[in-house]
Amino acid sequence: MTTPTLKSPNTVLANAVDDAVDVLRPRIGDSDIESIDFSVGTQINGQPHVGTHLVQSLAFLLAERARDEFGVDTSVDFCALDNSPAETVRAENRRYQRAFAHSLSADEITALVARHYLPLFDACRTRTNVPYTVSTYTQQQDTPAFRAEFLRTLELLEEVGTWLSPNSGSAHIRLPCPVCGWAEKYADRTRLVELDEAGGLFEAHCFEHGHYEADITPLGGGYLDLATLYRNVVKERSYRPDDRTLHVMVKGGDWAFGCQLVDGAHAALGLPVGPLPVRIFTPQILGSDGGKLSKSLLREAAELGLTQDENTPAWVLDPSAWPGTQEDYVDALTGLGELVLSDPKHFFRSYTTTALETLMSTRQPAPHNSQAKRPRTMPIYRQYFDLIAKGEKTVEVRVGYESMKRIKAGDLINFTCRESNCLTRVTRVGRYRTFTEMFGTERVEAVNPHATEIEQLEAIRAIFPPHKEALGVLTFEIERVDHA
Ligand SMILES: [Zn+2]
């Protein structure tokens, strides 16, 4: 497999991380994390473009990498943001909007998500063996944890509002009319009239049905439609402390700007009940002028007869126009994902649509139906990487995670460390109950020729604590595969 050459400049993260998933490491090391969940949310307004697909496929590739790097189970949680506006109208000198959740039936939302997102998710799950779940914003706002956390923010509504809407000073809390589902876009006539332990009582106004009340409690009281920044603050604070899952928000790079305000709101609110999630910002896809790829902007330009983005191929905006099969498209997309993940300098940056096209279309398609022949990527520390590359280390040790247990003799493993990679073939798989038992059979020098058995046991147990060793120990005897 050849990959196009890619050069990326240094960034502020250059000397701090060797791998994009290193940004999770501080939270893995100091706690009893048993699994990592990667959350990715997408507004469901129409056919997604390639930038959206890239964020989503990167969530799977990050989960795969984190699983192999940290030896914990990982998953992807997709939240379909069905509170994005489906219709807008001007009435009484104000803008009103109605969300997809109120314009479409629950079945129609399910069908829309299945059509636009699940084909890619299923393909990514097959490739990475990372499971995923799908939920909607409607379900999220209905959970007691989310609503309770929202109610807590009301105690400091002014301080929070300053951060979430620095322009107006008040955060938008849209409480759609219970009869028609329309809500004031800026919620400027929505007022909190009473707040006690039971909940918050609001007054609001509908252009059609006049004055109405919403009594928001942890268990109900109406639909709670929070503007984007507010929703993120509440979601990030709604994880519980007994949760042994590390939650990771996977977000498009433009969120790096918005999180300043989210973090200000967090600071204003004080420490949450549970730990805050970690965020990973994925590369942005930019149009020719450096602005974020935007369907609506390009559509406007086309309507005005402007052709400044004539170099943008149609499939960038409409992936169904990809010149090849859906499988080719997913190959190219995940190939790009693996390429940008091969070095944090490639990951923490943006790409123009022109660069994207080059990187996605010059990549040689992986042979189809060859899951077993596709080398699996295994990030490894430099000292061990060098030993494998020199042929001095011929046995690699891991613990019995499902993904590791699937590796068998004949499979290819591509060990990676920053920009270097070393392709190997598994010649034998060993299974043991403990590391001590392993060294009863495996040669100490094959695992590491420069350390004694006692030193190696110490190093291995530092990486895999007892509860991981309890999963069982796996060894892979490997030989280098020279590129033809
Ligand atoms: Zn109404």
Oligomer description? single chain
The largest sheet has its strands arranged as 5-2-1-12-13
Number of helices: 21
User: For this structure, what is the CATH class of the domain at 20-87 and 98-168 and 221-285?
Assistant: Alpha Beta
Kindly report the average pLDDT value.
89
pLDDT < 50 stretches:
364-372
Quote the CATH topology of the domain at 20-87 and 98-168 and 221-285.
Rossmann fold
Which architecture of the domain at 20-87 and 98-168 and 221-285 would the CATH scheme give at its second level? 3-Layer(aba) Sandwich
> Rg, please?
25 Å
Largest beta-sheet details:
5 strands, parallel
- In the CATH hierarchy, what is the superfamily of the domain at 20-87 and 98-168 and 221-285? HUPs
Strand residue percentage: 15-25%
Class by alpha and beta content: alpha/beta
Bound molecules: zinc ion
Principal-axes geometry comes out as globular
Q: What is the β-strand count?
A: 20
**Helicity range:** 25-40%
Written overview of the protein:
There is one protein chain. By secondary structure, the chain is of the alpha/beta class. Among the domains are: 20-87 and 98-168 and 221-285, HUPs (Rossmann fold, 3-Layer(aba) Sandwich); 376-480, Roll (Archaeosine Trna-guanine Transglycosylase, Chain: A, domain 4). The chain is 37% helix and 24% strand. It contains 21 helices and 20 strands. A hairpin with a 2-residue loop joins strand 3 (85-91) and strand 4 (94-99). Helix 8 (157-164) runs antiparallel to helix 10 and helix 13 (326-341) packs across helix 15. The radius of gyration is 25 Å and the shape is globular. The relative contact order is 0.12. It binds zinc ion. The site of zinc ion has 7 residues, from loops.
